[in-house]
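_Per-residue structure_
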Amino acid sequence: MVIFLFIFPKDTDGFKNKKRRLSSDVTVPQCTPRSPSQGQSSTETRPGTSSDSSTGVIKKYDDIVKSPNDKREYRGLQLANRLKVLLISDTTTDKSAAALDVNIGFLSDPDELPGLAHLCEHMLSLAIVKYDKYPNGIEFRRFLSTHGGLYYAFTFMDHTSYYFSLLPQHLAKVLDIFARLLMSPQFTEMATGRELSSINSEHQNNASSDIWRLIQLNKSTADPKHPYHKFGAGNKETLEIIPKEKGINVHKEVLKFHQKWYSSNIMTLIVMGKESLDELEKMVLKLFSAVEDKSVTAPTWPDHPFPPHLRAKRTYYYPVKHLRFLSIDFPIPDMRKHYKSGPRYYLSQLLEHKGPGSLLSVLKARGWSNNLIPSRRIDARGFAFFTVQVDLTEAGVDHIDEIVELVFQYIAMLKKQGPQRRVWEEQRDLLALEFRFRDAPDALIAVEAHAHKLQDVPMQDILSASYLMTEWRPDLIENLLELLTPDNVRVEVGAKCFEKKCTQTEPWYGTKYLQEDIDKETLAKWKAVELNPELHLPLPNEFIPARLELEKSSDPTADAIAPVIIKVLLTDTVCVCQAYTAKVGGNNYQWVHIEQFAVDVGLVYKPGDTNFEQFLKDYDSQLQQRKRSIVFGDYNINLLENNKRLTEYKNQDIGC
């Protein structure tokens, strides 16, 4: 399968990844959120890099930064053939898993064979392996399916990923088969024909998907001289009909593609199992040291697919489904190397903020949008996009230029205010909290998440790169802000009402659209925006903890409030649990007893149901005399209308 990471309405993409276990020779980050006197979150590191060329290992990394709560063990390796390996040991896992990433994708397709990298991925996935253990051959995917396994493979713009999981006792055997598959796959002509049909079926399914149509529309309107313009998915026309007309043997070309690019020096491997790190290392060395290092260089594309003459454009899109959206794109350089400072994350979090003074709050007030969709178009080595995506209301479709003007007003405010260290530190601390307390992903997700990242990130940072920001770089934020201008913008808007306007047809999916220049008057208006008093930076977040340790007491019952029986029901007793008074941010916060109302509402549901929650918000002892009510939420009062006892509580002020 070929895949593009373009996020569309209802999908989200964050600045995230994974982690898990503590051992004496592994780096342990404390991930301590800032206190008022702190500048940055501290991370404890220990030297842990070694090498042993006699064993086939160039470098060994036992200093991988991980969460203090992570119970998994990690080790990084670079083999003599320059294959990068991350080992994950988890004795509690119910599945073992592995992922391999090759740093080549469909941007490297030959011009005359769009979709060749995708075909190579399909061929490798279903190839037969023959060797002494299996003289008659064995199919990798069939082995997985008969041993409790799952398998996925995707072709991206600049890399191709394979990942799978299965029952733990079969890990060594499946890695043996997979390693041999990489080195000597059996690409038969019969299999080539079969996989061409499979790719064409994928293409036909994609043709009715708005996500795929929009992705390809963006690519088809790019510079025809840039590889981004290619039809990376491929279909029967590009991989069979046209090649035959030109006398091209596709079977031979896919063999050549594999032979050229599938080299250990541009591969990464992640393996997770119940075995110890030493056992996993021995397994990987034995099986993958023989993968050939062909000393290839993964290509990069520093020129953007949307040069200046393709900017300041507006595209109307006629969707398949009833969608209404606005996408505001700015071409930018590749930002992945700046993961320690997160300039793009800083700006995207501000533009997608939903509180007072935010872009969304103003759009909602005017009835033009219900949501901003976190979104990033696909990046590749050398180029990227900064995107603001708006979920439009029906009224919002008629105010596209005003919405874009609001976006530029917000950007103007950010430029005038300048990069704010306070905002960046809050983002940093929240990410560090997430890194520390995030649940460990299952085996398949864990290996998939790190496989491609290991191509770009040092081994020590592989778990923390999307979480621990340690470098305050206002210059990078300013540089990025300078690119967010009307002259650089590309506006894309989709709605059913544009059917008659969309007179152009995209060649691969038949998408109806219209692309036009944004008129000079509109551009001039966007360039001359004034500051909007409705738009401002988020207020300081007072709820980020300065200390994460639990309060300890020599006598846990000393400050306890005795349980109070509030209702006796036949054989069941309902009571309020023990409550404690704790210091939080200098104020005294105390849970108060909620008696009859909570019981009555709770009894509407069977015992054990948890779909009724009570919220105590902004309760401050200093405001106690002025704040005389508690808001109850997350239940549907309409469900309670027929209960005579409960309706009396509706809109009632419950005293504290």
About this structure: The mean pLDDT is 83. The chain has 18 helices and 23 strands.
